[in-house]
Amino acid sequence: MAVQPVQPEDQSRLWEQVLLSVMGRLGSRQAYDTWFKPIVPRELSSRLVDLEVPNAFFVDWIHEHHLSTLRLALHDVMGVTPEVRFTPREPAAAPPLRAAGLNAAPRGGPAPPPSVTRANRLWLETPLNPRHTFETFVVGPSNRFTHAASRGVAERPGALYNPLFIHGGSGLGKTHLLHAIGHEVKRVRPEARVQYVPAERFTNELIYAIQHGETLPFRNRYRGVDVLLIDDVQFLAGKESTQEEFFYTFNALRDVHKQVVVTADEPPKDIEGLEDRLISRFNQGLVADLKQPDLETRIAILRNRCEQEGAGLMLQDDVLLLLADRIRGNVRDLEGCLVRLLAWASLAQREITLELAEEVLGQYVGVEPDQLTPERILAAVGERFGVKGEALVGKRRTQVIALPRQVAMYLLRQLTDLSLAEIGRIFGGRDHTTVLYACEKIARLVNTEDALREKINGLISTLASG
User: Fold this and answer.
1) What domains does the chain contain, in order, with CATH numbers?
2) CA–CA separation, 223 vs 298, rounded Å?
3) How far are the Cα atoms of 101, 103, 125, 185, 196 from residue 115, in angstroms, in the given order?
């Protein structure tokens, strides 16, 4: 169905839907962060999509590498393929003079001061996401230590943990913390030179500098900052020339007590293809990790995002619980599902109910595999523990029944997409807090009791084999 000109209040949500589709189609998270996150939509309609990009280089690169992906994403969301127009924020620059330190001067006039040239504006800008601050970062048991370390670095850059190396799975908040550090440094010291850059963009800029004879200005730009924030450094793995350039940049900044913060999806020692000298430098500082947030933190994240979207978008507790329980992988997926739910409700003019949330989740999460039905899991647990299936879901609370019942709840949570409330209904209408307690208890016992761990691993192998 074609989308007519979009009202300003719905435009940002519609664009977020497009970005979700783009992210799903791209094979590289770094490519998304580098080329799509900086885009600002100026107009969205079924006829024309006008997008503001940082500079003309973006226009060329997207046309050459990502235009087809963008068009497919627009069709996914809007049902049509509108004309795509790019508007650069920065004007095209005249060819640079090769001599270091010189600027091209207009005929009949003096050269512009170095502080206001396009190159300086482009390379010393801090493209920080205004949403990603410490105030909007939800702290929980899974990220409290790393959040505190990031706060410390922002308050005393170059003096506390240098470098700070943050690692964790995709969508757990690494980029958010990088931007938050940058915002806090700029808040305290507005004159500070803060540079955030994904590792892929760092590589692309180095290649561009080499091709155009601008390696010296490239090095001066990155080695002249006060805080360097490098995202997804695992992208440098296997790229010897880029790693060498980054190594010397890192050393130059450390030598003058400038702060370096790096993120990756794994700790330094586990990044295959990363040179030993870089691993050694990273381990000299503080290595901190981010884990998957627990249920309570996921609910808090959803409430926080609702507040950012506007007070009128607060969801009912049952909807929040459903989303938080069903989307367990990472924060990005959790917020993406919320954005999709809000967009569906807005564009279809429907009230956000539990039924609508189930409808959106059905498409976002996917269908549960047939072989992992609750009936089959209950039967397997009953057989392994010598307990009848009806006893597992009954009212008896003896120790003989309680442990296998808790194991069954744990496996239903781990192996299916059922929510806590849905699992509770299977077990005679038990409350979701009872299910959560059972899952947490079995998770602890698995780490301490070898016999129980072997039983559960055997159950999982049996269920997986079909």
Assistant:
1) 8-88 (3.30.300.180), 123-290 (3.40.50.300), 295-364 (1.10.8.60), 370-464 (1.10.1750.10)
2) 38
3) 11, 11, 12, 21, 19
Contacts of 180 (CB under 8 A, 6+ apart): 132, 133, 134, 137, 150, 154
User: 10 Å Cβ neighbour count for 237?
Assistant: 17
449-456 CB contacts, 8 Å cutoff, 24+ apart: 452/407, 455/384, 455/385, 455/407, 456/407, 456/410, 456/411
Name the residue with tokens 């049996």.
462
HSE (CB half, 13 Å, CA atoms) of 220? 8
pLDDT in tens, 199-256: 888 888 888 888 888 888 889 889 989 999 999 999 898 888 889 999 999 999 999 9
d(CA 61, CA 169): 28
Asked if residue 409 lies in contact with residue 440, where contact means CB atoms within 8 angstroms, the answer is no
Exposure of 434 in the CB half-sphere (CA atoms within 13 A): 16
- Residue 76 tokens, joined: 């996914």
How far apart are the C-alpha atoms of 154 and 115, rounded to whole Å? 26
The CA-CA-CA angle for residues 421, 301, 198, to 5°, reads 130
Among candidates 338, 336, 184, which has minimal Cα distance to 259? Answer: 184
The pair of structure tokens assigned to 159 is 């003096």
* Amino acid present at 24: G
Lowest mean pLDDT of 33-37, 66-70, 118-122, 439-443, name the range.
118-122
Q: What local confidence, expressed as pLDDT, does residue 6 receive? A: 54
DSSP classification of residue 274: -
* Contact in structure between 167 and 174 (CB atoms under 8 Å): yes
**Which alpha helices (DSSP H) does 189-294 contain, by range?**
199-211, 215-223, 240-255, 276-284
377 is written with which tokens?
Answer: 């899991």
- State the greatest distance between any 2 C-alpha atoms of the chain, in Å, as a whole number: 94
Q: 62-71, 184-193, 393-402: which has the highest mean pLDDT?
A: 184-193
Average pLDDT over residues 11-18: 83
273, two tokens? 């293809």
Distances (CA, A) of 326 to 98, 101, 152, 323, 360: 57, 56, 34, 5, 12
Q: Which of 269, 273, 299, 300 has its CA nearest to residue 282? A: 269
